[in-house]
Amino acid sequence: MADAIKPLGRGATLALAVFALLAGQMAALLALTWWYGQSLGNLPNFSGDGAAIALIIAVSTPVEVGLLALFARRAGASAADYLGLIWPRRGEVVFGVAAMVVMIVAGNVLSWLLGRNLVTPFQLDIYKTASAGGWLLWLWLAIVVLTPIGEEILFRGFLFRGWLRSPRDVWPVIVVTSLLWALIHVQYDWYTIGQIFVFGLLLGWMRWASGSTILTILLHALINSEGMIETFVDLKWLT
Predict the structure, then answer these.
(1) Is 59 exposed, middle or buried (0-12, 13-18, 19+ CB in 10 A)?
(2) What does pTM read for this prediction?
(3) 37 Rama sector, left if φ>0, alpha if ψ -120 to 50, beta otherwise
(4) Hey, where are the domains in the chain?
């Protein structure tokens, strides 16, 4: 719910969020130049390389979150309070997990009815390459732990706080942050991006109802865990 913390301006919020996101990605690209021993202009295609994806997430997330925390402090509140990093109530966790499980099952049933694979080619590629290179544990940590932290603090933490001014802003902010969150997942097709958008609506509502970004981090981790488990099952028993 909205509270007494005075947020940064809407334009400043967007500009600072984009800066933090790009700064994190640039730091990750520089790490990749070291990893591959190549200049930025000569980097190979790493879109399906699980080790490279894990490295990108491991480098970009701390940079991005650190900058967002620094920007949040400029609003005069603690970074934790500004970003909604408070512990949810037990009932909120139970409700959130139950709602997310229902949505995951519904999404899988819909995909099955439409004849679509539950696991995307991107998921299969990064899982197989990370496993072959001995990076599977690091990929799990990156996808299940670091990605939810970074993305939730950016979208349901920093942007949500900066754009929410009154109760009438709730659903516009939830929709816009969900849309932006879905659109950064350029590795997927439009069907999967649409599913991500719907999950974002639930995450945004839970952020508003509970006031807790920690809750949305936990629920996001649940989504990503389910995706990794599905990928494991697909590779182990279905291919």
Answers:
(1) buried
(2) 0.94
(3) left
(4) 10-238
